[in-house]
Amino acid sequence: MIRATKSFFSGIVGLILTIQGIYASDFPLFPPIGPLPPVTIPADNPQTEAKVELGKKLYFDPRLSGNNWISCATCHNPVLGFADGLPRILGGPTSKEGGRHSPTIINTAYNDLQFWDGRAATLEEQALGPIQNPNEMFETLDNVVRKLSGISEYVKAFREVFGTGVTADGIAKAIAAFERTVVYANSPFDRYMQGDVHAMSESAKRGMDLFQGKAECIKCHNGPNFTDNKFHNIGVPPDGPLKEDLGRYNVTRNESDKGAFKTPTLRNITDTAPYMHNGFFPTLFEVVQFYNGGGGRSENKSADIHALNLTGQEVNDLIEFMKALTGEMVQIKYQSVPLAFPKVPKNF
Ligand code: HEC
Ligand code: HEC
User: Fold this and answer.
1) CB-CB neighbours of 65 under 10 Å
2) Whose CA is nearest to atom 41 of ligand 2?
3) Which ligand is nearest to the CA of 238?
4) Looking at the chain, which terminus has fewer C-beta neighbours within 10 angstroms, N or C?
5) How far apart are CA 89 and CA 103, in angstroms?
6) Nearest residue to 130 (alpha-carbon basis) of 87, 170, 166, 98
7) Per CATH, the architecture of 23-36+194-323 is what?
8) Where does heme c 2 bind (predicted)?
């Protein structure tokens, strides 16, 4: 009886999701892929034009770093898909290689959790991390506040936006507000889903069916942002200075999270090579071949990763589909704050 009720219920859910306009998914119970909804703005950090403008200035300002040399844009550069094009970061005072790949800022507004291991919940919480990280911008918040308080443009802008002097909280809120404007939408895939049948090539359309069928990508890369916002171990081989990266386990200490990383979005994926938490794969071809062969080796590998038996044509079709997920670039225009060395106020 319980089983009958359950299967009746899941039948209804499946039916509703199918009717919602998802084409030919073999896995109708996963949240359907489709155009992005509007960004959710947190109640305690409403967007205003002046705040976004201030966040943009801070984002591009190297004075947020210990040697006044590294800005957020050094590693999340708009012309490199808001990433850095490197397998792993080069940061800190000696440009030392770190263990992880810089993810893109594009569409981070849609992430439930930030970082490869999900250790920050919101963009506000995330923004102050890299400033203080010894391997990234190696600065203290006190020092940043002191430096920016010596620059009249910033003092004026903080007064206008927050009604206060320069504060760490304001820096985080303004940067997060700017990041929420970095949304690339209207990709060929989005236009196709909105009824433009010519927006995607025949190969991409076949790739979309494979994505939701034989290739099983939809099991993890689902919903409008192509991520379940969960963590999985797919067996990416170690590479770079870390012999082992335990990923999500470092946050939860659950054995089952060993080597698990956040499912990244696949939107704008053509802009953000190399791929994976450690930048192991230079191209999408190598990524798809990796999945096709059943992923990597790991004791803790997800049961959803297994050999796929895709033909050469099918591998190409999947790649063509992923290429159709790249949206329109957001043009960034801003007036930088003059790069004079700040006059540090006496009372600090
Ligand atoms: C030296 C390079 C570097 C600098 C500078 C840097 N980041 Fe990052 N950023 C990274 C790396 C690497 C990660 C992933 C780290 C991890 O997951 O452990 C990351 C992760 C992020 C994420 C999470 C994205 C996601 O999808 O999970 C956001 C948002 C972000 N950075 C914003 C910023 C902002 C804002 C600044 C400036 C205040 C900044 N970053 C400065 C390298 C950098
Ligand atoms: C079991 C869940 C799961 C399945 C199934 C899955 N992925 Fe992934 N995918 C992930 C996770 C987790 C990562 C990040 C892994 C890491 O960095 O260690 C990832 C990373 C990627 C990346 C790199 C993204 C980036 O920004 O670096 C691409 C591309 C990708 N997957 C495509 C696919 C395709 C195509 C399929 C189907 C053939 C697929 N995935 C199936 C969970 C999954």
Assistant:
1) 23
2) 217
3) 2
4) N
5) 10
6) 98
7) Orthogonal Bundle (1.10)
8) 217, 220-221
Which residues of the chain form CATH 1.10.760.10? 23-36+194-323, 49-179
| Beta carbon of 310 within 6 Å of any ligand 2 atom | no
Active-site option among 136, 179, 216, 314: 136
The answer to whether residue 53 is catalytic is: no
Which atom of ligand 2 is found nearest the CA of 104?
26
In angstroms, rounded to a whole number, what is the distance separating the alpha carbons of residues 310 and 307? Answer: 9
pTM (predicted TM-score): 0.90
| CATH level 2 (architecture), domain 49-179 | Orthogonal Bundle (1.10)
- How far apart are alpha carbons 224 and 244 in whole angstroms? 32
Q: Which two tokens stand for residue 81?
A: 């898909």
Provide the residue-wise pLDDT of the chain in tens; the chain has 348 residues.
444 444 444 444 444 444 444 445 777 889 999 999 999 999 999 999 999 999 999 999 999 999 998 999 999 999 999 999 999 988 888 888 988 999 999 999 999 999 999 999 999 999 999 999 998 899 999 999 999 999 999 999 999 999 999 999 999 999 999 999 999 999 999 999 999 999 999 999 999 999 999 999 999 999 999 999 999 999 999 998 998 999 999 999 999 999 999 999 999 999 999 999 999 999 999 999 999 999 999 999 999 999 999 999 999 999 999 999 999 988 888 777 766 665 555 554
